[in-house]
Design goal:
With 263 residues, this protein is mainly beta. It folds into three domains: 91 residues, Beta Barrel (conserved putative lor/sdh protein from methanococcus maripaludis s2 fold), CATH 2.40.420; 86 residues, Elongation Factor Tu (Ef-tu), domain 3 (Beta Barrel), CATH 2.40.30; 67 residues, RNA polymerase II/Efflux pump adaptor protein, barrel-sandwich hybrid domain (OB fold (Dihydrolipoamide Acetyltransferase, E2P), Beta Barrel). It contains two helices and 20 strands. The chain has a six-stranded antiparallel beta barrel with strand order 2-11-14-13-12-15. A four-stranded antiparallel sheet has the order 1-20-16-17, with no helix packed on it. A hairpin with a 2-residue loop joins strand 13 and strand 14. The longest helix is centred in the first third of the chain and has 28 residues. 17% of the residues are buried.
Length: 263
């Protein structure tokens, strides 16, 4: 082998070693340290709910009858015992409870067929929220869990409820949510956004997701670097919550460089 060729091989070898050292050094220095974040984490099941009421009353006639007089109109709030209507035979139907007249299906002097609803009354004091969930979500829901509710155009009114029951109904799984105080203006059959709180941690320990590798993270504690086994759960695209593992707020977590940063 000629002297020039030997020199060329030697130069190439030195260059390769230098490039490898540069890559390793860059990869090492691109790692960075960061303290864990401490903050709230909420795990919830989100769904659309419908306001319902436990008490409905439909006026029905046992035989065909003509409505002689109507005492109420749709949308009217009435008290228990108030007259609703009178038939041509002089029979007066009265409200069995206080509530809201939601339907008047016939007018005065009209004949209403037997068995057909003539008027509907809803009790707005017994309202609740009904939510239908899929099987994957319903497994997480338990009686007694807190619920946050939000109504369209009433976003500033914070409404809270509690899961009263969880049950199957026909081909769906249903959650009944009790609400002590509905915002003014809420009526039966309105929709609302619900967040059923499954788990809440006000002081969760959060670390960057790319700091975790095979259930381990590298930390620096009082100048000493060590590996810590952890159990973590992603909370978003960037952070994971540490569920188990000795990770402290004053630790430095070593955040690994991304793969493409060493190229």
């Amino acid at each position: 082998m000629s002297t020039n060729r030997k020199k060329a091989y030697l130069i190439a070898a030195i260059a390769a070693i230098a490039i490898a050292s540069l890559i390793c050094g860059f990869s090492h220095h691109s790692n960075r340290r960061a303290h864990p974040r401490i903050g709230p984490v909420v795990e919830a099941v989100y769904a659309l709910g419908i306001v319902k009421t436990d008490r409905w009353y439909n006026v029905r006639f046992g035989m065909n009858a003509v409505i002689q007089k109507l005492y109420v109109v749709e949308g009217q709030e009435i008290t228990a015992g108030s007259p609703l209507l009178m038939t041509d035979s002089g029979i007066i139907f009265r409200a069995p409870f206080s509530g809201l007249v939601t339907q008047v299906l016939f007018r005065e002097s009209e004949m209403a067929p037997a068995g057909q609803p003539v008027m509907t009354l809803a009790d707005t004091r017994t309202m609740y929220v009904r939510v239908s969930l899929d099987q994957k979500s319903i497994i997480l829901v338990r009686k007694g869990q807190k619920v946050e509710l939000s109504f369209e155009n009433l976003r500033d009114s914070r409404t809270e409820g509690i899961v009263e029951s969880v049950y199957p109904s026909s081909n769906e799984f249903v959650v009944r949510i009790g609400v002590r105080n509905f915002p003014d203006g809420v009526l039966p059959e309105m929709n609302c956004d619900t967040a059923i709180i499954i788990r809440k941690n006000e002081n969760a320990v959060l670390v960057l997701r790319n700091a975790i590798l095979q259930n381990e993270i590298t930390i620096e504690r009082k100048g000493k670097r060590m590996q810590v086994k952890v159990q973590a759960k992603p909370v978003d695209r960037e952070f994971s919550e540490i569920l188990e593992g000795d990770v402290r707020p004053d630790d430095f977590v070593i955040v690994r460089a991304k793969k493409n940063s060493s190229k």
